[in-house]
Amino acid sequence: MAAAFGAAALSLSVAAFAGPSGPQDEEDKTPKPLPPLQKNFPLDQTWSLRELNGKPVPEGLDASLKIDGTLRGSGFTGCNSWSATLYPVKDQHLLVGPFALTRKQCPMDVMAIEFGFLSGLLGKPTWDLVNGDLVIKGPRGWMRLVRSL
Description:
Elements: H1 2-18, H2 26-29, E1 46-52, E2 55-56, E3 64-67, E4 72-76, E5 81-89, E6 93-96, E7 100-101, H3 108-119, E8 126-130, E9 133-138, E10 141-147
Antiparallel strand pairs: 1-2, 1-3, 1-10, 3-4, 4-5, 5-6, 5-7, 8-9, 9-10
């Protein structure tokens, strides 16, 4: 009886590794495309805003973004300091938690850049590294940032 059980188990094992038998669809033989390579977000690096929605940032205005190793985003908007939980997630998207923001008032043009910069991080934008620059695109705008010290 043990020999019969062993023979049955062996035949099931061989059948399991032999693969499907009989005719196969043509679709099964076509190679499947590889998924796109996932990039890792450059953590612990500070990025300075250079372009917002196609317009250059005025000379001397410093707006910045950094995501540290604990996924805490922080920076400066040109007027106020900010921080938030900022997660780089699958398919090169960013998820942001509520912003903590200082409440300094600045000239209207600087406040407009602050609004556009922080709004651009909302709505699960995508990010990419293009020619060494960080490009963030989302439903509320896009921005280009350069690595800074």
